[in-house]
Backbone:
């Protein structure tokens, strides 16, 4: 269905270009809000923090397991040492008079000494593993705590930037409302529809012989049509379909 022909005074049509300019500025503000570097930095930080948090859970579990293992190793060594001490006390007290029993006790004490040595080696190995695991745990906790400070800095910077952009958007919005109030509803409706389908530009000036919406130079037949059109006729670019506004820089 062919659109109805619109008419508007030349000054009103030029005012439409002011509306277009304000809309482009609003689009730029919206783009800046979405593309603030803090947004990506916070997303990257969250991804990195997620990895560190996961590794920290693993480190906490490993440290906890090794702490239990160390307690068990300590307990095993203590039990064998106590048994050796009891046997040694029996020997030293003279309670054992049988040569065979003494020989058995000496043999058992020798076995307990070897057992203590093996357990102490195992105990030392667990202690070394625990020390290494605690170092990893401490590093991860330090990194996790640093994330909080970095996140706070980024959020403060982001919020300040958003506040400034929101103030710009509010100011531009007020100006836009004022300009839109001066324009006919039918003209705004057509402009809005064209803007949505043409990358945010619904109206463009004719500078020289070129439409500044599509940057195409118009054909002679189109220029003749424009020249013959009434001053209040709302024209459209034959190349891109946008509203074409004649200005002092138009060469027809």
Residues:
């Amino acid at each position: 269905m062919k659109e109805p022909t619109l008419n508007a005074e030349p000054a009103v049509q030029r005012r439409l270009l002011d509306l277009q300019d304000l809309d482009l500025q609003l689009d730029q503000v919206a783009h800046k809000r979405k593309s603030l570097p803090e947004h990506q930095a916070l997303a990257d930080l969250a991804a990195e923090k997620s990895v560190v948090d996961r590794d920290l859970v693993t480190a906490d579990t490993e440290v906890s397991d090794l702490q239990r293992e160390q307690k068990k190793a300590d307990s095993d060594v203590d039990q064998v040492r106590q048994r050796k001490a009891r046997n040694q006390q029996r020997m030293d007290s003279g309670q054992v008079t049988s040569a065979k029993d003494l020989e058995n006790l000496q043999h058992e004490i020798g076995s307990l000494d070897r057992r203590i040595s093996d357990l102490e080696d195992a105990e030392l190995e667990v202690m070394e593993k625990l020390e290494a695991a605690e170092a990893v745990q401490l590093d991860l906790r330090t990194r996790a705590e640093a994330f909080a400070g970095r996140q706070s800095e980024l959020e403060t910077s982001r919020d300040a930037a958003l506040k400034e952009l929101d103030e710009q958007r509010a100011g531009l919005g007020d100006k836009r409302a004022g300009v839109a109030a001066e324009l006919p509803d039918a003209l705004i409706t057509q402009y809005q529809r064209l803007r949505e389908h043409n990358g945010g530009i619904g109206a463009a000036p004719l500078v020289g012989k070129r439409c500044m919406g599509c940057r195409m130079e118009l054909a002679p037949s189109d220029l003749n049509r424009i020249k013959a059109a009434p001053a209040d006729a709302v024209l459209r670019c034959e190349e891109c379909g946008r509203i074409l506004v004649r200005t002092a820089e138009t060469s027809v």
